[in-house]
Structure to design on (465 residues):
């Protein structure tokens, strides 16, 4: 690197302007999301062509670069941090968590090993212990901090795969699948797509999954559960992406425990219900499972990407994620990579710690229960406007159905282009439905009423067209 370029970069920090500029844009953005259209305008999307330019040959000007990014970027964002975005299961951001992340980004800590960042190691340790306390899990549980539930599901099932094979006298890490004894995979028919992905990545093959039929809300039917045994990995769900429903952990985990099966629970957004006194009944008995996956970036409202795997068999998880290399200095202290597939990782524990320290147990309860209250409000208001709700609104998801697929799809289109709120679609029982997910702390009662009115307007428009 030329001395010139290096000096130019040192100067960026010394002038103290570069982050100030970003900070100005950031506050403008954050304070505009309450009123901002949840989805970018057609014009903002067209303006994205301003990013299509030849790859620069020479160095640029940081001020102009940030200016360009903000000018054409901010308006083309999906304002999921505002109060009227109900797509997928996305979650907002807690102010303290985004601020802690900024600071952490500046520190640029690698949380692979203790020696790479004692701070990152300590905060992972603290978060692990607070999470266990929050969910009432025994001390033997360990946590891995990774990008999201897709990875966390993979890790939980990989730990189960390691343990079951080990019990059969087979080391899957060294011996692989050829000639291995058979392991069964049992999952509910309504399992999230990330489950099938993990099964495929782990080499079991999706066609080998023994799918269990589910009820009208996507919950595993107890009567359909096959006999379980010690060679079985059973995958359950806390929070179905559309229905928001929970499997009956209490009954199923007791069976699985006595059969010595491994139970993984995909609780990406739903497991957090266990942190609310009034919703805890939904996750009753979940602690009979062996591994859990959940997302702080969903219900807890940390920024992306922030997933967690919790596992009651630290050896199985560590062995499944095994890594070695002569230069790796494992220590007495927590080495984050022990429980994750990645080595180099940003320090997600920092923003997770900030979120948990800020909210505390009471605040998390309030946040989680508040999402449910807003979901109930939305379903009540929609019903009062003669919309049909097809699911039991046990948590934060609402499914709306209209007279015909044609009308439903038109309403979805109208809502998405309304600038008032944003909701997606799904298929339920072969019919088109509208999916509403309440995931952000920023959603107010007024946001819900305003959005319900937007549904009415979208329906009138659909029927008159
Ligand atoms: C979101 C979600 C996933 C996938 O999680 P990512 O964090 O997006 O990887 C898996 N299962 C359920 C139930 C989810 O809601």
């Amino acid at each position: 690197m030329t001395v010139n370029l290096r000096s130019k970069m040192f100067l960026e920090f010394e002038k103290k302007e570069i982050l100030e500029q970003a900070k100005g844009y950031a506050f403008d953005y954050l304070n505009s999301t309450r009123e901002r259209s949840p989805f970018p305008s057609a014009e903002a999307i067209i303006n994205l062509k301003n990013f299509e330019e030849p790859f620069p040959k020479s160095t640029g000007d940081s001020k102009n670069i940030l200016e360009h990014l903000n000018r054409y970027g901010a308006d083309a964002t999906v304002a999921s941090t505002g109060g009227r975005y109900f797509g997928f299961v996305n979650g907002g951001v807690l102010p303290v968590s985004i601020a802690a992340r900024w600071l952490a980004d500046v520190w640029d800590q690698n949380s692979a090993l203790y020696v790479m960042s004692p701070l990152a190691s300590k905060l992972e340790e603290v978060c692990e212990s607070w999470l266990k306390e929050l969910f009432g899990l025994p001390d033997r549980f360990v946590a891995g901090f990774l990008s999201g539930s897709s990875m966390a599901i993979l890790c939980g099932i990989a730990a189960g795969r390691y343990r079951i094979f080990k019990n059969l006298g087979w080391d899957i890490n060294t011996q692989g699948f050829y000639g291995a004894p058979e392991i069964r995979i049992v999952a509910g028919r309504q399992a999230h797509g990330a489950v099938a992905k993990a099964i495929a990545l782990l080499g079991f093959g999706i066609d080998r999954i023994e799918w269990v039929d589910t009820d009208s809300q996507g919950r595993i039917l107890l009567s359909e559960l096959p006999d379980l045994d010690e060679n079985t990995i059973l995958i359950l769900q806390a929070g179905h992406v559309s229905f928001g429903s929970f499997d009956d952990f209490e009954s199923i985990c007791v069976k699985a425990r006595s059969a010595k099966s491994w139970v993984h629970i995909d609780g990406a957004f739903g497991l957090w219900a266990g942190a609310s006194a009034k919703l805890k009944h939904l996750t009753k008995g979940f602690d009979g499972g062996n591994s859990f996956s959940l997302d702080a970036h969903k219900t807890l409202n940390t920024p992306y990407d922030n997933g967690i795997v919790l596992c009651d068999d630290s050896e199985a998880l560590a062995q499944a994620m095994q890594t070695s290399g002569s230069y790796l200095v494992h220590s007495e202290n927590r080495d984050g990579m022990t429980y994750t597939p990645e080595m180099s990782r940003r320090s997600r524990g920092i923003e997770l710690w900030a979120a948990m320290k800020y909210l505390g147990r009471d605040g998390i309860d309030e946040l989680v229960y508040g999402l449910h209250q807003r979901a109930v409000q939305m379903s009540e208001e929609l019903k009062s406007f003669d919309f049909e709700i097809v699911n039991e609104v046990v948590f934060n998801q609402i499914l709306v159905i209209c007279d015909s697929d044609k009308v439903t799809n038109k309403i979805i289109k109208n809502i998405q282009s309304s600038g008032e709120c944003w909701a997606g679609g799904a298929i339920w029982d072969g019919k088109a439905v509208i999916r509403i997910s309440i995931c952000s702390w920023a959603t107010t009662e007024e946001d819900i009423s305003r959005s319900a009115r937007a549904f009415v307007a979208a329906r009138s428009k659909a029927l008159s067209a």
Observations:
- The mean pLDDT is 96.
